[in-house]
Each structure stands twice: as structure tokens, then as C-alpha cells.
Fold this protein.
Amino acid sequence: QVQLVESGGGLVQPGGSLRLSCVASGLTFSSYVMSWYRQAPGMERELVADVSSTGGSINYASSVKGRFTISRDNVRKTVTLQMNNLEAEDTAVYYCMARHIRVNSNQYWGKGTLVTVSS
């Protein structure tokens, strides 16, 4: 049974930082592209960042580039999202997603962790 468990969300003031983690189990972690998505109230889910199976290729949404950093540890089966200089617009539920490198339809989602940026 595949599980993706996110943690690290919470309430933070504008300009602050948070570190999200996602721990995977039940899958061959190194065969999956790992992504962070987010969904704000009333908005569609959007891609925040993704990292290739080896960690050699990383992409960011333009809205977070320069503020967020995604990384992965294939030994610990963990993907993290370091979020700095947070803005109110970053408030959302953040989801971890795993997508197989050869079978796009082979995808798994975590249940999400809430990030609230507010003074």
C-alpha cells in the first residue's frame, strides 16, 4: 500500500519560513518524479515544484522561484520543500505527489498539509 505523508505545515507570518516534508512508503521511491502542489481556497490545484527521480532536474512555478527549494533523499524516501520569504498568497493546502517515470497514470497523492501565512 502506497502512502505519502506530508508534515510541516502551520501558521507563519509574512516573510517567515516553513519546511514541508513528505515521506513515502510502499513504492520504489527512486522510480518516481516527486512534486509539490498546492490548492488555495476557491482555486485550482497548481504545481509548485517538482524534482526528477535522480534529483538532477528541478522545476519551479514562477511565483515561488527564488523563495522555495525542493529536494529529495532517495535513501530516506523523503521529499522536502523549503519555503522562505512566505507571502499571504502562499496560503494553501500543500500536497505531495509521486508520478512514475515511465507510466504517467501511475500517480499517488498525499492528504495535504495546510500552510497559512498571516500576521
The CA atoms of residues 48 and 64 lie 7 Å apart. The first strand starts at residue 3 and ends at 7. The mean pLDDT is 97. The two ends are 40 Å apart (CA to CA).
